[in-house]
Design goal:
mainly beta, 5-stranded antiparallel β-sheet, 4-stranded antiparallel β-sheet, globular
């Protein structure tokens, strides 16, 4: 398996998100048992609606500025910041064109 170039993936998927009528693009870069890592790109103003949280997850902003939305309003994150996701329903809003690395442990998995 080749090591992914996160900068190249962020650039590629930001271009795809800007061209997509839904304003988003995603790519699963790692699937190892229960561990998943994905690059998610969102055009400014695009959101991922609230969804149930996995047992453990983090979000690292590769490019841009996002708001992690939760029941208490959420928190803004900028390029270079990383945050453990709360174990409650959450969503994501791109305040500008943004790409994030989403890492999640989804439970018991198989290789």
């Amino acid at each position: 398996m080749n090591d992914p170039d996160l900068t190249a993936l962020a650039n590629e998927h930001l271009a795809k998100a800007r061209a997509d009528h839904h304003g988003r693009s995603a790519h699963l870069i790692l699937h190892d048992g229960p561990l998943r890592q994905s690059v998610i790109a969102l055009a400014a103003g695009t959101q991922l609606h609230e969804h149930n949280a996995p047992p453990a997850a983090s979000l690292q902003v590769l490019r841009g500025h996002v708001r992690l939305t939760t029941g208490d309003g959420g928190r803004e994150l900028r390029s270079g910041e990383v945050r453990t996701l709360p174990r409650e329903r959450n969503g994501l809003l791109a305040l500008e064109d943004s790409a994030v690395l989403f890492t999640a442990v989804t439970g018991i998995g198989h290789r």
